[in-house]
Structure formats: structure tokens, C-alpha cells
Design goal:
575 residues; alpha/beta; Rossmann fold
């Protein structure tokens, strides 16, 4: 419900407006800056109203490109990404992006057109049961049946999407609701949702219990997930870590939540994480999870995950606590608020220099590595060069696959909100459109988009947006002429039976870029990579870089499916 307080001169401001006009006024009230949308029959009244607004509208070349762009915008800004699509296929084309945003906790508000209310349920032209389709993959969804509900529902949607654990909220708008008329009252509105009250403040007794556990721990480890970033708790995490001298492991989505150059940072954990991070979690006697999901790519075989550890889990979503890993100290709270209270406790910081020495020895003995023993350019070298030449300051947006893992391994993130990737759903095609949203969100920053040659072709039509809006995105294709991660698994686990994972005969990506008015370069050596990256990374125009890399390179280290954290392979050059 919304509580409404009429402004002092409301009577003089009353006028008759359409539902579409009321829709636009509601977006303006939410301070929406950008809409990513694609018009169609069911949303034509809304688009007619958009014609007169000052809100920036970005037209993707496919609805999936639009929602991934909105995800990139949301990830960098923390504000809800806003998407408008028409009914039927327009709505179903954004389902992948909605599921992606749900898995990665991104604030989104998606508006779908719908056939008129009298036609709903009749299999009318371009009708789809969007509420039924999206109920499992949204934080909440609505279908507006009364024009007067438009301001309330939009206000609630933005609030729900951006509070608690962020996530996508969908609003389905029948065409007759958009064309209907109502007397408009300019009112101030407040959200009143008694059934939705996220817990922000932690239980004091649980904080004390965790403080006592930290004081007695000999081998503590903090696992920092994306929840640290969503709650803007990076400074609080750094203060607490340095106060208690507890080493930090990051999840894939948590990268940047704690500086990679800090001596207490161990590294990325999980399937392709570093040896030191995984062994630290395996041997820990206290594991403090802050805002991570304990997903299977992080934990490996649960039987061998932190088997000797007392597990504490701080999360704003109570459904995550105990879902996958048994939790001894549950703390339902916003990460920032929990860290503030932990820092203020009077617990004695533990002394565990022997533990830190062991971790540092692991880091020294088992770093990420690759062999430069091939006629081909090594993909890891490309990431080292990009990191060096951007000074670690770029916003890095990736697609999904081998290149994503190499980026996480070899690009060191020292600041928050510089890393945009599809983690939970692992959506190929995400990278290119997401970089568009990231660049629109941060027009003065260098955005580097990294994709494989397979994933790049899934949403390549969005090159037109980059050209049209003159977005200076640096597009990197790691071209190994295969679906790299699929090929790697077939090599390791399917006796090198490369069933439909090799994709020779790729298009000429440079000519493709030129068709959209974008410069492109093919790069085959380290020397070329060094020279061209120096030329293009800091100019103010888009560029596409086709790196022809070693086609059989694999991502190591690796934990095979069903194995534990301590059963990594490829941790040394001779493994």
C-alpha cells in the first residue's frame, strides 16, 4: 500500500492523464535516468508518452541485449536497471536476463506490455502468461488491473528491487490500462509493505557469539561475496579485516570487495580459484561467510568443504543461511551493519601468525601460472597486459567461459564495482550488451569487454548501439576457435571427443566491426598485443580486438566435479 499526502496546491494541479502518461510520471518520480527498451504493439501507448520525456532511452537490437545492458548499468551504479518490452515474444526474450539478474542479485524493474484485460487468457495475438513464466525468477511481479494502481505499484517495485537482497521485479501492463484515463493528483507517496521488512540490523547475541569464535580461532578465514558490494560495505570489511588480521577469500562475484593488493587477501576461491584460497577454506577452523551463496562452483564436494570449521554466515537473505552448508552462527543482517557491530566489539584479536605464514607460503609456492611454450599467443598474457596498461582501473565486463576465469585470475581488482560478469546463471552473450550498460553508467571510465569468439556472436547485433551512441568500449575477443570451456571439459572428461565444440570458419570479426563503423585489429603475438593495447586503451572511441590465442589452452588450477577443495589439479606446471 501507499500512503498519500496531497500537496498544498493539489487541486490546481489535477488534470486528466492516460495510464501511459501516469507511467512516465512515476518513472520520473523514481529519478530514472535510462530506459533500455524495445517498442511493440502492446506498449505503443507507453512509447507515445515516452516521446515527451527527458529520460534517456536506449534501443537495443534485441530484447535480450537490452536486459543485459540494464544489468550492466545496475551492477555498476547499484540503481535499478529499467527495461520496457512488448507482450508475448518481447516478454519471453528477456526471461534469460531476468533469471540472470535473480541469480546475481541485481536490482531491476522490468515492464512488459500485455494484451487488453478483456483478452487475457484467450490466447490473443502476442499474449503470454508472463506472470506464470517469471514467478520463479523474480523477487516479485505484478499485473496492473486498475489504472489508479500505477503509481503505487511502480513505487513498490523500485523499493522491492533495491532493498534487502536486490533482485528483479516485473510489472505487466495491459494495453487498455495504458490507454485509460484518470484524474492525476500530484502526491507524495510512501511505501507501506507490512509483509516485506528486510532485517538490516544483526541480532546482538549472534554478533557476540561470532566475536567469541574469532577470538578463539587459530585458522580463521573470511569468505567475501557479492553481498559486500551490494551493501556498499567494502570500507567496513577492510577495517574489520585489518583490525582482526583475518585473511580474505573472494567468490567470483565478490571480486573487488576487498583490495587484491592487500597482504590479507588470499585470492579467488572455488573451481578455478587459487590453491592458497581453497586450501585455506579446507583447513580453516572458522569460516565467516559474508554475503555469499555457498554455490557448488565455490564449495566443490560439500563433504570436503571446510570440514573442520565452525561456519558463520552473514546474509540479508535468511533463505541462504543453512541452504547448502550447515551453519553454526547464523547472522541475518545487512553486511555493512553486521561489520560495523563486529568492529565495535571488544573481542581480543586472535594471534595466528603461523596460519598466515602457511597461507603466504601457499601463495608463493602455488601461484597462477602458464607456459609460454607455443607458437600461439597465450590468453593469460593478454589479461596481464590489459591489467598492466589500465593500471587495474578499468571496469572489466566479461562473457562466460574460459576468458571469464582468466580475467578473474589475472586481473587484480582493488576497487569495488569494477567487475561485471554473469556468475550464477553463466549466460553466454552477456558480455557485449552488459558493457554497454556499464559504459552508459560510467561514461568517463575505461570499459573493457572481454568475450570468447562463441559468446560474442550471441549478441553481436548490439555493436550498433556502441556505434550509434559512440560508446568508447574496448572489446576484446579471446579467439580460440572453439567453445573453450566446453572443449576443455571434453578434453579432460570425454576422451577428447570434441562433439560440436570446435567452431572453425569464424566470421571476420574485423570486417564485422567495420560494418558497424568500429575499428578493429587482429592480434597474434605478444608484441602486437603490447603495441596495439598501448594505442587503443585510452582513446575515446570504440575498438574491437581479435586476439588469436592458443586454441588448446586450458584454465588451471581446477577442481573437477565431485571433488573437494583439496583435490585441485593443475596447481603446478608439471601437474
Amino acid at each position: 500500500m501507499l500512503q498519500k499526502t496531497a500537496s498544498t496546491d493539489s487541486q490546481s494541479q489535477q488534470k486528466v492523464v492516460s495510464g501511459a502518461e501516469l507511467f512516465v510520471k512515476s518513472l520520473e518520480r523514481e529519478n530514472v535516468e535510462v530506459i533500455f527498451g524495445y517498442p511493440g504493439g502492446a506498449v505503443l501507448p507507453i512509447y507515445d508518452a515516452i516521446y515527451d520525456t527527458k529520460i534517456r532511452h536506449v534501443l537495443p537490437r534485441h530484447e535480450q541485449g537490452g536486459i543485459h545492458a540494464a544489468e550492466g548499468y545496475a551492477r555498476v551504479t547499484g540503481k535499478p536497471g529499467v527495461v520496457i518490452v512488448t507482450s508475448g515474444p518481447g516478454a519471453t526474450n528477456v526471461v534469460t536476463g531476468i533469471a540472470d539478474a535473480m541469480m546475481d542479485s541485481l536490482p531491476m524493474v522490468i515492464f512488459t506490455g500485455q494484451v487488453g484485460t478483456s483478452l487475457i487468457g484467450s490466447d490473443a495475438f502476442q499474449e503470454a502468461d508472463v506472470l506464470g513464466i517469471t514467478t520463479p525468477i523474480t523477487k516479485h511481479n505484478y499485473q496492473i488491473r486498475n489504472i489508479e494502481d500505477i503509481p503505487r505499484i511502480i513505487k513498490e517495485a523500485f523499493y522491492i528491487a533495491s532493498t534487502g537482497r536486490p533482485g528483479p521485479v516485473l510489472i505487466d501492463i495491459p494495453k487498455d490500462i495504458a490507454t485509460g484515463k484518470i484524474e492525476y493528483n500530484d502526491v507524495d507517496e510512501e511505501v507501506n509493505l507490512p509483509g516485506y521488512q528486510p532485517t538490516l540490523q544483526p541480532n546482538y547475541l549472534q554478533i557476540r557469539k561470532l566475536t567469541e569464535a574469532v577470538s578463539s580461532a587459530k585458522k580463521p578465514v573470511i569468505l567475501a561475496g557479492a553481498g559486500v558490494l551490494h551493501s556498499k560495505a567494502t570500507e567496513e570489511l577492510k577495517k574489520y579485516v585489518e583490525q582482526q588480521k583475518i585473511p580474505v577469500v573472494h567468490t567470483l562475484l565478490g571480486l573487488g570487495g576487498f583490495p587484491a593488493d592487500n597482504e590479507l587477501f588470499i585470492g579467488l576461491g572455488g573451481m578455478h580459484g587459487c590453491y592458497a584460497a581453497n586450501m585455506a577454506m579446507y583447513e580453516a577452523d572458522l569460516l565467516i561467510n559474508i554475503g555469499a551463496r555457498f554455490d557448488d562452483r565455490l564449495t566443490g564436494n560439500l563433504e570436503h568443504f571446510a570440514p573442520n570449521a565452525t561456519v558463520a554466515h552473514i546474509d540479508i537473505d535468511p533463505a541462504e543461511i543453512g541452504k547448502n552448508v550447515s551453519t553454526d552462527i547464523p547472522v541475518v543482517a545487512d553486511a555493512k551493519e553486521a561489520l560495523k557491530q563486529l568492529f565495535d566489539q571488544d573481542g581480543k584479536p586472535p594471534v595466528h601468525q603461523e596460519w598466515m605464514n602457511k597461507i603466504n607460503n601457499w601463495k608463493k609456492e602455488y601461484p597462477y601460472f602458464y607456459k609460454e611454450d607455443s607458437e600461439y599467443l597465450k590468453p593469460q598474457k593478454v589479461f596481464e597486459l590489459i591489467y598492466e596498461k589500465t593500471n587495474g582501473e578499468a571496469i572489466v565486463v566479461t562473457d562466460v567461459g574460459q576468458h571469464q576465469m582468466w580475467a578473474a585470475q589475472f586481473y587484480r581488482f582493488n576497487k569495488a564495482d569494477k567487475w561485471v560478469t554473469s556468475g550464477g546463471l553463466g549466460t553466454m552473450g552477456f558480455g557485449l550488451p552488459a558493457s554497454i550498460g556499464a559504459q552508459i553508467a560510467s561514461p568517463d571510465e575505461t570499459v573493457v569487454m572481454i568475450s570468447g569468439d562463441g559468446g560474442f556472436q550471441m549478441c553481436l547485433q548490439e555493436l550498433q548501439i556502441i556505434s550509434e551512441h559512440k560508446l568508447p568500449i574496448k572489446m576484446v575477443i579471446i579467439n580460440n576457435q572453439s567453445l573453450g570451456m566446453v572443449r576443455q571439459w571434453q578434453e579432460l572428461f570425454y576422451e577428447e571427443r570434441y562433439s560440436h565444440s570446435l567452431i572453425p570458419g569464424q566470421p571476420n570479426f574485423i570486417k564485422l566491426a567495420e560494418a558497424y563503423g568500429i575499428k578493429g585489429y587482429t592480434i597474434t603475438t605478444s608484441e602486437e598485443a603490447d603495441k596495439i593495447l598501448n594505442e587503443v586503451l585510452h582513446n575515446n572511441e570504440p575498438v574491437l580486438l581479435d586476439f588469436r590465442v592458443e586454441p588448446k589452452e586450458c584454465v588451471y588450477p581446477m577442481i573437477a566435479a565431485g571433488k573437494g577443495l583439496h583435490e585441485m589439479v593443475g596447481v603446478k606446471p608439471n601437474d
